[in-house]
Amino acid sequence: MLRFVFRRVLNQWPLITFSLASLLVIAFLEFSIPQITQRIIDDIIPSKSVPQLVATILTLLGFALALSLFSYVSTYVMSRISQTAIVDLREELYRHVLKQDFNFFETQKTGDLMTRFSGDIKAIQDLISPNTLRLFSNVLTFVFVLAFMLKTDWRLTLLITLTFPFLYLLNFYFSRHIKTAFRQVRQSTAKINNQLQTSLTSVLLIKNFATEDFETERFGAVNQENKEHYLTAMRYQSLFSPSIDFINYVGMAIVLGYGTLQVFRGELTVGNIVAYLAYLKLLQNPVRSFTQMVSRFQQSLVSYERIMDLYQVEPNIVDVANPLELTGLKKAIQFNHVDFSYEMGQPILQDVSFVMPRGQVTALVGSSGSGKTTTTRLLTRLYDPVAGEVLIDGCDIRQYSMSSLRHHVGIVSQDVELIDGTIRENIMYGTPSATDEELLIAVGAAKLADFVEGLPKGLETQVGERGIKLSGGQKQRIAIARVFLKNAPILILDEATASLDNESERHIQASLDNLLEQKTSLVIAHRLSTVLNADMILVMDKGRIVEQGTHESLLAHNGRYQELYQAQFK
Ligand SMILES: Nc1ncnc2c1ncn2[C@@H]1O[C@H](COP(=O)(O)OP(=O)(O)OP(=O)(O)O)[C@@H](O)[C@H]1O
């Protein structure tokens, strides 16, 4: 973990060098101040020299001022180093997560991912904090002080160091337990986040089924679990500091007891004892901050492991080395003996083969769960086939760069996804360079113009939380306008007109027909009326294409299409 953190701050070496230099100065000043006390007690008090006293006090104040100044500067600089490193880390992790396969997001819990971005990154941030820096300066002071004490009275110093093994053992014992306990705290916090995330995004479900009490009870259970783990962690942590304090008092007793005996024998001065007591504190400081660091370190370690887990996930669907750039569709898209399964041993698509010639509309029909959406997902490489291939102009789509492939496909799907922003931002999402003229054409084509003109802020109206609520049909039309604007040569319409009333559907259908005319499209529709005019209809059943042809030829055939048609219209 330290190596990981170190690599992340290494590029800020000038600031780090400056911080380390300040640490040296701080350690020197902290070591010197008790020397001044000793000098006053042992030399100046007996000499009764006022000028010497004034000079020494001024030196003391000067040292104290310098100490404050260096502490301030080094703390601020360290915060800067830490913030810069954390911003980089968060961004890198974000990019890494977005790069993952679609499948990753389907299996990963959102709340858990959010915890990694918030809590876990914060724990790493704590590690690169001014407190950690303090620990380093304390360690330096520790070395200075120990060297001096050994020189002054090695026996007394050795007696004090007898307490160190106990400190070490206590650290060892507590840190192990604290680490385990904090891992459980984090896991249960992620559970709380998951529960919150799922219930807050399904409020309608909860209201409709009046399951508030049930949900609250479930939430209570995970909340309680979190409390138990936290209390376990706290039990260890609260016992940790007092145990260390006790050992420290033993050290103080040794200095006072043995030191006073030495004074009796004339081997140490009173000033020596006072300085020793101050130094004892300086020896204890590192131990103190070390104890705090242990728990922070444990938390960071748990978080580090969770972040590393995330880093270690690599996407399976990636560009080949030196991918081709797709520059347009010239002849056809072809599915060639494609097999696919989401989970091993459970085939979803089997031996799917068909051709979509350029400029034609291919429709996919079939009962629910027959594999229509899955087929469209293979075309944009949300998933790759298990066997067989998908070709564009005779070339396997895996040879093209994913971004060029996806730039060539426009999708309107069942679930419209809107971003938090204005209607304009939503329509221009993915096409930020579109001109106002192009935007207005898209708005008109998607039959949104009347609706937008009726809004006081027009295209600048916020959608979602801080703006207007949109109906299902309006959302869908925004999604259609977005695809109009993208103007990709290949179109996928997955139940694109699903949430429109009959009248809007007619409007949209007309403009979609315009759009489809110049495109190569794959249209999924449960309502057969929307696919009557398709150039080719593929009938899917249990992951296979069981029939294909035009509406008339399929009806005449008296097969699965006939059944579907009968079920809908008779
Ligand atoms: N992410 C997934 N993981 C595992 N199985 C899945 C996943 N998505 C879909 N399936 C399964 O794959 C099969 C085909 O689903 P698909 O969504 O392609 O069907 P569909 O024909 O589009 O259905 P509908 O018309 O209801 O949208 C279904 O049995 C479904 O349960």
Automatic annotation (TrEMBL):
Q: Would I find Glycosyltransferase among this entry's keywords?
A: no
Query: Which keywords has UniProt assigned to this entry?
Result: ATP-binding, Membrane, Nucleotide-binding, Transmembrane, Transmembrane helix, Transport
CDD domains per record? ABC_6TM_exporters
Give all residue intervals belonging to the ABC transporter domain: 333-567
The domain of life for this entry's organism is Bacteria
Subcellular location, principal: membrane
Compartments where found: Cell membrane
Show where the ABC transmembrane type-1 domain sits. Answer: 18-299
Residue spans crossing the bilayer: 12-33, 53-73, 132-150, 156-174
User: What is the membrane topology listed in the Swiss-Prot or TrEMBL record?
Assistant: Multi-pass membrane protein
UniProt cross-references to InterPro entries, sorted A to Z: AAA+_ATPase, ABC1_TM_dom, ABC1_TM_sf, ABC_transporter-like_ATP-bd, ABC_transporter-like_CS, P-loop_NTPase, Type_1_exporter
Any one cellular-component term (Gene Ontology)? plasma membrane
Question: What's a single GO MF annotation on this record?
Answer: ATP hydrolysis activity
Q: Name one Pfam family in it.
A: ABC_tran
Q: What is this protein called?
A: ABC transporter ATP-binding protein
Record the organism. Vagococcus allomyrinae
